[in-house]
Amino acid sequence: MGWDGEGVLAGRYRNLGRIGQGGMGAVWRAHDPELGREVAIKELRVPEQVTERERSVWYARMEREARAAAGLRHPAIVTVYDRVMGEDGRPWIVMELIRGRSLAQLLAEQGAVPARRVAAIGLAMLDALSAAHAQGVVHRDVKPANVLLEGDRVVLTDFGIAAVEGDATLTGSGAVLGTPAYMSPEQVRGERATPASDLWALGATLYAAVEGRPPFTAPSHGGLFVAIATQEPAPPRCGGPLAHLLHGLLSKDPAARLSPAQVRDLLQAVSDDGEPPLAEHRPPSPEPATRVEPASTGACRHPVAVRGALVAAWIAIAAALLLPRDFADPIGLSILLEVAPRWLEVALVVAILLSCLLWNMTDRPAFVLPAVAVFAVLLTLAAPSSYDAIVINELGESDRAPDIGFGLAWAWLAGAVALMFAFAGVNASLEARMPRPALLRTAVVIEGALAVLWLPLVFWTLGIGMDADMSRHVGSEARAWALMGVLAAVFTVWVAAQAASRRRHRGPEPAR
């Protein structure tokens, strides 16, 4: 039994066209006149060269899919309506028609997905898997192509190789069931798949959504299996609870993976604290999703850290150039235009223009840190050191030390804030690479010290001294000490803010 001459299956379902086709068969859109609705019908196609025994195994596999999926009732699981048995023993599965596209297709079209959208997808997938596991069903083939998106709805489909508790195994030795890039280490080793295996695949799927690529790639299945079993995935470029989630789900040891409750807590933390999701402005496609492998790359965004660093750096330059060294002196810009070498003027203009390009690169905080460091060196060289000279004019003069005037003092403070914002941007990825909290705490202290001492360090690197008696130009000795106090306060706030951020984003510890 199949489509008859009029394109009707089982005397009921009228063929409206093929939705997609894969290695195991095809999916068709059809109309059910009895209930007045459109449905999706999955057809199994077995290669001609297989033996009758192998053919019966594949048929039993699809029969089991229908039985497994039909027993599940959840909004995030595709609904099975009917099963039609062909005269050759081949089952046809009639199921809910999803009008949307797969996560794999979304990744292929736009690259990585924003963090809060990933969290929403992950929560729906977790609900679907939890419902399946409660019924004794292990999906065994969770991947982006099996996650369908219909507006705000997320649907897990294709239980074609699902393992149902109590069923006999349908695979012979050497058979590979599942998509290699998303198989768990225990599946790669030929061990029995468990709910923890589905959680690994959930982690691999969310990793692909965040990064735009699977956690492991290789030119052959053998190389891919070796990588999954023995290597660690590259740390995701986003940090916080999302990085902890991916690290906890992709543990080689099933017993060490996060529990569903821990996964839910971390995903909820991302949903509550992540960036706003990017709305998909176009309506859902009238055609159900086809399966396309993901492509492109992406990363989590850090707009506050990146843009905060740039704004503070611009304030530092403005303070050094538009404020005077002493209230009786001309502003720094007028001195710069008179005595600075032309290359320094050009370098400042180029640095400011290039920094504007970083404004929208909120997914590349590592680029901002060196940019702020370059700003620090340039503004130090361009800062006024007397009423008719700038710091660069003091180079090679061992008997002179540039004065720290009013403008450079404010630039010092703003530069420290800029560096702290830049360090905060890179600390998210640093946290993912430093699972030991003590290492990150040490790094935070070192970063804070570098930030508040950046001006003396630049002077020291340039081989010139620095006049520490700022009372002559800052206004009074009290104001000079006030500047030191503000810098110390900034350091204290930095350490406290980073500690609070780690506590907020750490979430529950992985199960051991």
Automatic annotation (TrEMBL):
**Amino-acid positions noted as binding ATP in the UniProt annotation, renumbered to this chain:** 42
The reply to whether Transferase figures as a keyword in the UniProt entry is yes
Keyword Ubl conjugation attributed: no
Question: Which E.C. number(s) belong to this protein?
Answer: 2.7.11.1
Q: Which Pfam families match?
A: Pkinase
- According to its UniProt record, this protein's enzyme class is transferase
Protein kinase domain location: 13-278
Any idea which UniProt keywords this protein has? ATP-binding, Kinase, Membrane, Nucleotide-binding, Serine/threonine-protein kinase, Transferase, Transmembrane, Transmembrane helix
InterPro entries hit by this protein = Kinase-like_dom_sf, Prot_kinase_dom, Protein_kinase_ATP_BS, Ser/Thr_kinase_AS
Which SMART domains does this chain map to?
Answer: S_TKc
Q: Where is this region: Disordered?
A: 272-296
UniProt GO MF annotations:
protein serine/threonine kinase activity
TM spans, by residue?
304-323, 343-360, 367-387, 407-426, 438-460, 480-497
Protein name, per record: non-specific serine/threonine protein kinase
